[in-house]
Amino acid sequence: MTSVASWLSLGEGSTPLVHARRLSESLGCELHLKCEGLNPTGSFKDRGMVVAVERAVQAGARAVVCASTGNTAASAAAYAARAGVEAVVLTPAGATAGPKRAQVRAVGARVIEVRGSFDDALRLCRELGERDGYVVVNSVNPDRIEGQKSVVYELLEQLGGAPDVVALPFGGGGNTCAVAAGFAEAGVAPRIVVGQAAERTTTWASAIRIGEPAHANEVAELVAAGRVEVATLSEDQLRGAWERLAKEEGAFCEPASAAGVAALERCVESTLSGRIAVAILTGHGLKDAEAVAQPAEVVVDATLDAVLEVLS
Chain-wide mean pLDDT for the chain? Predict the structure, then answer.
């Protein structure tokens, strides 16, 4: 497994694996949640980004560049700041959650909003990456995939063996490729189920709002080889899984992170019965706090009677 220079690490990895008792009962399996939102910048991206930025610096880059709906940008910006190089972030105009924008700006990255989609931003990012001194750190950079494989080794260690099923979101497909590669290297072959939004370009789950996945061909090859299954999810299915994770397990993740659980819920019950399953929750809920409905606040006088009246 790839090692990372200690001077650049922010403490990525070693995220908890939590048994989801109530969801296990409803799914008929033993479900565990891999809480990747507890990485330093709040998403799984840190695992691969620390490797990509380290190698970019070693290669003499003066800047790293990425296209992003938010999480890649936050991660690239943080590690670039720590490495002392510039980060250039291209985002689709108006399509990035506020907390993610705040993360990027707080650490001093240069943010350029593009009138277009994520796919337009990635095209420009690749063109910029052809210029001297710029290194693209999206998952099209193989160093990102190399770093993201570490989640597999953690899972195997935490479980004491391989799970029967692993589920995760499918946006650009880089993490799907990394997880599949990690298990292949470890010599085990769990069933891998990935959830994608049916409304890819407009989905409420903004982190997977990607019309043309950069790794579409690789994922298609994994599907053809019988190593990966793709579940296409409605907005209601995504939202329902997200709400159940929070309300039944206390696991507040960003909307896209629930796609793996939603994909498991699409599986035929008999195929999960008695199995050990892991859902990778890719980002923290505070990444997209605006997704939470904001009911009118209840304000009462500072007396116990007033509080009890509300509770009655």
Answer: 93
